[in-house]
Amino acid sequence: SLWEGEAQEQKAWSLLNSCRKALWEAELAGNVSLADLVASNEDIYRAEGMEWFLRYGEEKQPLDRDYDIVFRQYLINVYQRLQLPVPELLKVPLAGQVIAKPQMMGTVEVSPKIDGLTNEREWQQASVYQSLESKNPFQALLVGMDQKFLHIQIVLPQIVEKWYGSNKQLVIYLSDSNRLTVNANTRYLHNGRSLRLGYGLVSEILIDFNRIKKPGQYRARVSWAQGNGQWNTITLPVKLAVNKVVEIAIDRRIVKSGSEISFNVLAVEGRNYLGMLPEVGAAVLNIK
Q1: Percentage of the chain with pLDDT > 70?
Q2: How far is CA 56 from CA 71, 99, 240, in A?
Q3: Per residue, what are the HEC states of 239-264?
Q4: φ/ψ of residue 217, rounded to 5
């Protein structure tokens, strides 16, 4: 059916229904003027017009980014008239995400030993994203997974030891196409403004070099998006090793089976953004 199925479309319907409910509750409580009620109903009618939903979903007509912007703006208008917080998911594109292509596409099936040492044989089937910018704090990002873990190897252009005990951090942000509770912004600033990655952020994995003094096994902090810019630290198995390179194995239970995930790895110092990989767009994997 043209009206069912894909994650994009399900998110659009969920956002539309939540907006309709917010307007209904405001009307019931007498918290909206007649003029704002009429204008908001008109915006909802426009948003629920079938042309929008014909365009969401991978098997349908390609969704122009402008259509996505206009659809979300209709719903944003309603929340603003009601003086209610705009849901985080409305602040990021539902479609048209930029997908980064790896310089080397692997079979992705890898099960390396997480020890922070470079072993080409262990990672030879991984996909490789390389930095093309001389000032980027990253050299390369290797990505693969097995039945239990998403594996990431981070290669820095300088000796990793130079980061030990510093205020520098590596942060991995992941999306999940089947989750609706997201944060739009990272916790970090780029050119003085909150940094967005172009997709809804579901989880955050933080590697804090201020706590790393020598090569070895360490813990990464895992946080879960609560919406409205709030994060909740959770307990989830994450293997982390720092030595010649940084290697991490993330339990695949962090995302739902059947999800498409997008992710980037950021380098930051304090709250300031230093760079990321992939440099343009996000790495994308399908979790079966």
Answers
A1: 91
A2: 11, 17, 38
A3: EEEECCCEEEEEEHHHCCCCCEEEEE
A4: -95, 135
